[in-house]
């Protein structure tokens, strides 16, 4: 019986890692968040409306994530995802150790792929001189 429980837990562990690798790492980070973050970070160039604002440099990570100085849609998405993740973390912290570890393993895989994806998009932009083709979601007034 214990052997079956361990096999089941190992299967859930693997499934969690695969799910988060695809859903969080590839679909969420690689295709959407990483290119947006890299493109917005490259708008912080002296001589542009974004680059001439010291607040944008001080809060560059938040700016790059689209948490301010963004279109209404981007603000809603960025804040919604950030608050949603915080709520999910609060719920997962209350789970028993085994399911929490299974979910945590998947999250680690997803975040690792996400971090690698940001590095990939950044290096690609620097080496090719071409930014990601995704919309930077800057408000219309900020682009003039």
Provide structural commentary:
The chain is an all-alpha fold and about 140 residues long. The protein has one domain (about 1-144). The chain has helices at about 1-40, 55-60, 60-65, 70-90, 95-130.
Summarize the helices and strands and which ones pair or pack.
Blueprint: H1 2-41, H2 54-58, H3 60-64, H4 72-92, H5 97-128
Helix pairs in contact: 1-5
pLDDT < 50 stretches: none
Largest sheet: none
Q: Please work out how many helical segments DSSP would assign.
A: 5
* Broad shape: elongated
Q: Which class of secondary structure composition applies to the elements?
A: mainly alpha
Please give the oligomerization state of what you see.
single chain
Could you say how many structural domains there are in total?
1
Span of the ends, CA to CA: 67 Å
Residue fraction in strands: under 5%
Spatial extent as radius of gyration: 19 Å
- Give the helix proportion (percent range): over 70%
Number of E-type strands = 0
Keywords: Membrane, Transmembrane, Transmembrane helix
